[in-house]
Fold this sequence. Notes:
Two copies of one chain form a homodimer. Chain A contains eleven helices and twelve strands. Chain A is of the alpha/beta class.
Amino acid sequence: MNSPPLPRLAVTMGDPAGVGPELCLRLLAAAEAGEFTDCLPVVFGSIAVLERVADRLGLPRRFPLVAEPAAATAAAVYDVCGDGLEAIKPGLVSPAAGEAAYQYCDRAIAAALAGSVAGIVTAPLNKEALQAAGHHYPGHTELFAERLAAERSCMMQYADDIACSFVTTHVGYAEVPGLLSPARIGEVLDLTDAALRRIRGRAPRLLVCGLNPHAGEHSLFGGGEEERLIAPAVAAAVARGIDATGPVPGDTAFTPRARREYDGVVCMYHDQGHIPVKMIAFDRAVNITLGLPVPRTSVDHGTAFDIAWQGLADPGSLFAAVRLPARLAGLAVKAP
Amino acid sequence: MNSPPLPRLAVTMGDPAGVGPELCLRLLAAAEAGEFTDCLPVVFGSIAVLERVADRLGLPRRFPLVAEPAAATAAAVYDVCGDGLEAIKPGLVSPAAGEAAYQYCDRAIAAALAGSVAGIVTAPLNKEALQAAGHHYPGHTELFAERLAAERSCMMQYADDIACSFVTTHVGYAEVPGLLSPARIGEVLDLTDAALRRIRGRAPRLLVCGLNPHAGEHSLFGGGEEERLIAPAVAAAVARGIDATGPVPGDTAFTPRARREYDGVVCMYHDQGHIPVKMIAFDRAVNITLGLPVPRTSVDHGTAFDIAWQGLADPGSLFAAVRLPARLAGLAVKAP
């Protein structure tokens, strides 16, 4: 009797000039060594780049190749795009690298929509390169949300000891207040609650941050965003059965005591949650896009152009990103 | 031969309805036990309140009293104001408590200007109570800056393992971008460099945060504040001989690696620095107002109305705040 096939995960290689290629090499080696027992990673990347990086780092340059993602029965590479990549240099922004990074995502989305992969894991892309290639997405999160036609989605950063989800992410500091609304905050509360229920196996306790210093201190600071926008969203979520508390001052949401008492924090803007996550779980935290039809996770770090192709990048965050989707319910839908 | 007299520090009791009174009781006990060897704390507070709190907590209610601050030759209480305090209840905002908290500061400032004290340490006040009493300061920092006629000043949070100074502090989230300028950022860089030179005894290495996610990622996000306002200020500071790096993304400024490599971080807004400080040094960090003619420090926490008068408040931050001024050069000026 054969055991059921493991669900396939598309792992996009990210910007070829960043640390993505070497992380994928580490991943393939770890998969060959049997480190991933509940999924089957398929690297969506460029063989030509993987070979150049492998040569540079003295790593083996033989990879199991598949002609199409659905053909993979073990960890493998699906060669997506090599055009114009010969000239790519580590650490340099280029439209060719941006285009390649986009193509890896594009093919992974197609494979997910076709049911060939049960989840997507992304290595970091460079937003400047992406824009230079004519793809005007602020980041992965928005690209996947649009292409996978998510009605509502948000970014979450997850490690077992800290989890933050975001009402706004890759927008300018000054744009944040205009993007807050009870509806959007409620959406993020719903998505966060649902995801942490699956990961934790129980109803999570959520904290919701305010926007202003001291959460506005009863409207002494700021435009009353806490009273007008955040508090009504929290009250409505509580009425829906979500265990949510807030708005609380951002600087009290991550103290050791708060981290013991709450399972997740809903943040109003990027740095409000990224500062504490990077302090506590640098190289361990996983980025998840919540609300998509398939789970999509990514590493928590950037392209790290300064150390690209040197073999210095820690694959810990990528490995964690590969392991997390199996803990989300979406993976119960096995790939055919 | 007598040793020279220890410099006197004014310790303001803060809002009488908060944890200030019990912290002052702990301080007086610790001082009597000989815990402060390089300064002489004088509590600027209300005897009537200290007695009520002492009774409630079962602590001794005998305190050394002085009729005027300059008369103190050991740790003592200077009874400032008792009007209307009979009705004060722990944990409740009231104009009477706000007025008392203001008066403690007012007398401490007068004592500093008269040379009777060589530094000021403040227990937390409640900003709502302060405003209810008709004193329209956003907080201690601004009150002291105005009354001590500081040409330029800024807030710093200090612990030996993390130090942040702030370009803006107690203003609404949305007001921050309009308050940034190369001149103001340069001022904060100067004040931070000077303070850390004194505390560390060498030229400090400073990091300067950006405002937008990823420090704007080369103007992809935000209004170009990094390029227009922050980078020129950093370049000018470097030209003045300050070891400053930035702007860097806020979420990379507090990683374990960054904290090992830099002595201090210049933050653009309140929560950018308060989140990491409260995570790492809750109950240990000290607030300093830089740029004043006398050193002024304060506890890093609020009035904690929820646990006031219960004996639960940790005096660690107040003790640290009392010890820090002696490490700043201002205290070389001994009180007469």
